[in-house]
Amino acid sequence: GIVNDLGTDTKGGGKSSAAADKVVEEIRAKGGKAVANYDSVEDGEKLIQTALDAFGRIGKCGLLSVNVSFLLFCISDLIQRIHLRGSFLVTRAAWNHMKNQKFGRIIMTASAAGIYGNFGQANYSAAKLGMLGLANTLAIEGRKYNVHCNTIAPVAGSRLTETVMPPDLVASLKPEYVAPLVLWLCHEQCQENGGLFEVGAGWIGKLRWERSQGQIVRKKNKSMTPEAVRDQWDKICDFTDATKPATVQESLQSMVSVLSRMESEDQVGANSTAAAASPASSMAVGQKLPPTTFSFTHTQCILYALGVGMSTKDPDHLRFLYEGSPDFSCLPTFGVIPSQAAMMEGGLSSVPGLNIDFTQVREYINCILGKLTSEATIADVLDKGSGAVILLDVHTYSGGELVCYNQFSVFVVGAGGFGGKRTSEKAKASVPPPKRAPDAVVIDSTTRDQAALYRLSGDWNPLHIDPSFAAMGGFKAPILHGLCSFGFAARHVLKQFANNDPSRFKAIKVRFVKPVMPGQSLQTEMWKEGNRIHIQCKVKETDAVVLAGAYVDLHGASEASPENLTQGGGLQSELVFAEIGRRIKDLGSELVKKVNAVFGWEITKDGKTAAQWTIDLKNGSGSLHKGPYSGKADVTFTVSDEDFMEVVQGKVNPQKAFFSGKLKVRGNIMLSQKLEVILKDYAKL
């Protein structure tokens, strides 16, 4: 190692090589290698060059211990130059060498005077705490190069302390009781980084910051006043349930939380994460969020399918990606999109008793699928200790008919501990998979841009795209949406056990366990138990479980046997089209003005096309054609005879029929909104 000492006296004067030479002799006598250096630490390049000349690199352990406590305290500029600037210059001289060799260990020698302050040592205290700040940043910047930086605040006998301490106390504070900590922190096996340690007399202690929960002291759209600070001072300084932020990101989380809650709070309230589920949270149960509306076309359905990994490379996926496909359908899990909009845009953060930091939100979904309106209700609030769970029921309607139900379990990290109940009979229970090998396994790769693509379906949380926001949530990089992984797993089941038939899809329950990073591969394991498919999803590269306790319930496959049917023979829909034809003869011109489109219909029975109809409400005074049509329809519907009658009689909403896969549409899907004009107003049975 390099032993650096100017050899000044206790007043900062003079210069001698004796101090450094003595230590070198001691190291060599014990079989070590050492070289003396007598330069000032302000000449950091010279010090490091001495090491390179002697050893060819910055030591096997990469030790850089900056200890300049022998300098005089009284000269402010000199103190800053030697302690803080000197540490910086020596470190800078060694930094690139350490980075290039992918190894380095830096130990800054601070002082209790810098940590706690000390009478008469303002200049010294400032320099020593400055070294701690330097060390903390070096720990962050050096981490990816295996360059670690820690700080020690030693109490040891020295030329300086022996003049002010009793001899017996100096003897008990030998440097030998500090050196072992330094050696361990320098060792290649030691992974400690960014630590601060007090050490002396054979005792070692690690320090960390502690922060009170704090208090919000301003109101929405109001100025912050010193009186509000005064009135809340006791709560500001209350260290009950104190937090221990370890990074700038963790520190900023509180600021993000404050800004989020400030938008909804009308009065001064606690700046405690636990306030998200304080006893006042009982006020939230039963509260209804403002209704939200959601309009979509085939574009949103296709974009969602792409977002959950569907690709034209798989021919089976075309029915979900091409609106002109004869079997064009919407993935059934698309139903979470309007429902999630109700949760995120419907004012969840404004519900009395709830304060939510959205960098800390995790979601769990239970949905039964099928211009939509969603209504959300707080079903319950649970205390899980480390966080709070908000059960949110979302019902989505088309007109007055329920087409989709979702239950979201929103987990808010750090919001627990308020004394609430841990379980709820309103929660949909998870179910573990059978204890046997899975019946099927599907592995699917996500892309680096999977989250960037999925968010276009409406989940705009910056946690999934903005690295700085993700860091505030405690993640090294933006993570994949949990609902994206959910979509991957659901379509794996749909293909493996339902032949990609959305009408077979009944319900799905998923519990999210860990996040997925875009670019990782998802491995879905499936167990079939009757019409229930148990699923577990893992990250293939790490074997980490990301979806657990999950299942998909399917409708049973049709038991009917296909028959060869004659064109239109024995179909109930014949009566409906006959009535439509009569109405066109009577009111054709009026219908053409209202509709201005050509509709094609393919009526099936037992899975085979049984009849074809074309309703032309674009040309002339309108017409109805049976059989193949020589022109081109603007939109074509494929539906079974039975389901067609359900829609016509108002027993099934067209939107719901489309979501469930019973009604397939190709062409201009927006024209489907005019079905009511044709089927309801003018087809009275």
Automatic annotation (TrEMBL):
<dbReference type="Pfam" id="PF01575">
    <property type="entry name" value="MaoC_dehydratas"/>
</dbReference>
<dbReference type="GO" id="GO:0018812">
    <property type="term" value="F:3-hydroxyacyl-CoA dehydratase activity"/>
</dbReference>
<dbReference type="InterPro" id="IPR036527">
    <property type="entry name" value="SCP2_sterol-bd_dom_sf"/>
</dbReference>
<dbReference type="InterPro" id="IPR029069">
    <property type="entry name" value="HotDog_dom_sf"/>
</dbReference>
<keyword id="KW-0560">Oxidoreductase</keyword>
<comment type="pathway">
    <text>Lipid metabolism; fatty acid beta-oxidation.</text>
</comment>
<dbReference type="GO" id="GO:0016491">
    <property type="term" value="F:oxidoreductase activity"/>
</dbReference>
<dbReference type="InterPro" id="IPR002347">
    <property type="entry name" value="SDR_fam"/>
</dbReference>
<keyword id="KW-0276">Fatty acid metabolism</keyword>
<dbReference type="GO" id="GO:0005777">
    <property type="term" value="C:peroxisome"/>
</dbReference>
<feature type="domain" description="Peroxisomal multifunctional enzyme type 2-like N-terminal">
    <location>
        <begin position="294"/>
        <end position="414"/>
    </location>
</feature>
<feature type="domain" description="SCP2">
    <location>
        <begin position="580"/>
        <end position="680"/>
    </location>
</feature>
<dbReference type="InterPro" id="IPR003033">
    <property type="entry name" value="SCP2_sterol-bd_dom"/>
</dbReference>
<keyword id="KW-0456">Lyase</keyword>
<dbReference type="InterPro" id="IPR002539">
    <property type="entry name" value="MaoC-like_dom"/>
</dbReference>
<keyword id="KW-0443">Lipid metabolism</keyword>
<comment type="similarity">
    <text>Belongs to the short-chain dehydrogenases/reductases (SDR) family.</text>
</comment>
<feature type="domain" description="MaoC-like">
    <location>
        <begin position="433"/>
        <end position="545"/>
    </location>
</feature>
<dbReference type="InterPro" id="IPR020904">
    <property type="entry name" value="Sc_DH/Rdtase_CS"/>
</dbReference>
<dbReference type="Pfam" id="PF00106">
    <property type="entry name" value="adh_short"/>
</dbReference>
<dbReference type="InterPro" id="IPR054357">
    <property type="entry name" value="MFE-2_N"/>
</dbReference>
<protein>
    <recommendedName>
        <fullName>Hydroxysteroid (17-beta) dehydrogenase 4</fullName>
    </recommendedName>
</protein>
<keyword id="KW-0576">Peroxisome</keyword>
<dbReference type="Pfam" id="PF02036">
    <property type="entry name" value="SCP2"/>
</dbReference>
<dbReference type="InterPro" id="IPR051687">
    <property type="entry name" value="Peroxisomal_Beta-Oxidation"/>
</dbReference>
<dbReference type="Pfam" id="PF22622">
    <property type="entry name" value="MFE-2_hydrat-2_N"/>
</dbReference>
<dbReference type="InterPro" id="IPR036291">
    <property type="entry name" value="NAD(P)-bd_dom_sf"/>
</dbReference>
<dbReference type="GO" id="GO:0006631">
    <property type="term" value="P:fatty acid metabolic process"/>
</dbReference>
